[in-house]
Amino acid sequence: MSIIVNLDVMLARRKMSLTELSQQVGITLSNLSVLKTGKAKAIRFDTLAAICQALNCQPGEILEYSA
User: Fold this and answer.
1) What predicted TM-score, i.e. pTM, was given to this entire model?
2) Which CATH number fits domain 2-66: 3.40.50.2300, 3.40.50.170, 3.40.50.970, 1.10.260.40?
């Protein structure tokens, strides 16, 4: 069981770089990189909400459950 992070897919769809997202959301580039690569152990709801607002998407478009 795992959670797949599709942040790179959403960034590509929105034609936005990780650096641009970092600046808009106020999260360090290194923390976003950890999330993007799927190495993050947790994410705060307010962080997820800020990412969704910046990318104009729903949490389910970023996070996916795989059995």
Assistant:
1) 0.90
2) 1.10.260.40
